[in-house]
């Protein structure tokens, strides 16, 4: 990678399974993919800074009535209780604002992302912080507030096959749109899907560990430049 200034990487794991497939019994494939991705990335860019977020093991609080009242109140008019309600959201949104590269491990649960990951999305989509809104604005009343140049990599795993474009279940795949649409709304528009993989069928592990799975895992290394999103350098 040509750039020598450190980048901030934000890996987010969201599987409810704590272990890694191939290493731990009933381990998570997306956790293995994201670990592999970050390890490979850091081998090439040791100077980069990683801030890890595990929403699968520590789910963010879902949005509540108090949260909404606080988030849509101008910051200078929030009371102490409202500031407390937003503290976790402030932290999560701050991590997203600081990140140059966001790497999300996203299992498919019932065609979409896990509730834990949806809770993260709901906490980082914040008016006045990550997107702007002004009804009186001519044209589009919403605008993205994330600094330009950020990149999103989605690493997915699911049990069934046929979710890719043209596949038999393509219209049922809500994982990628469920991440790309809200994050593009904030300004994160470059989002290659690097690690999609059908690994399990009817709850039975199909290809885990080395052997048949290994070519795919080594693909991650060759796909890293895709995270540049068509640029020559970061
Ligand atoms: C609650 C739950 C719901 C799931 N729903 C789907 C589904 O709708 N479609 C599918 O193909 N696989 C589904 N699966 C299989 C998972 O996508 C698959 O096991 C994947 O590897 C999970 O990610 P992980 O290995 O990182 O935990 C589901 C698994 C669980 C536990």
Automatic annotation (TrEMBL):
It holds the Pfam family Flavodoxin_2. FMN binds at residues 15, 108-111. Keywords: Flavoprotein, FMN, NAD, Oxidoreductase. Residues 24-192 form the Flavodoxin-like fold domain. It is an enzyme of class 1 (oxidoreductase). Binds 1 FMN per subunit. InterPro entries: Flavodoxin_fold, Flavoprotein-like_sf, FMN-dep_NADH:Q_OxRdtase_AzoR1, NADH:quinone_OxRdtase_FMN_depd. Its EC number is 1.6.5.-, 1.7.1.17. Its cofactor is FMN. Homodimer. Quinone reductase that provides resistance to thiol-specific stress caused by electrophilic quinones. Also exhibits azoreductase activity. Catalyzes the reductive cleavage of the azo bond in aromatic azo compounds to the corresponding amines. Belongs to the azoreductase type 1 family. This is FMN dependent NADH:quinone oxidoreductase. The gene is azoR.
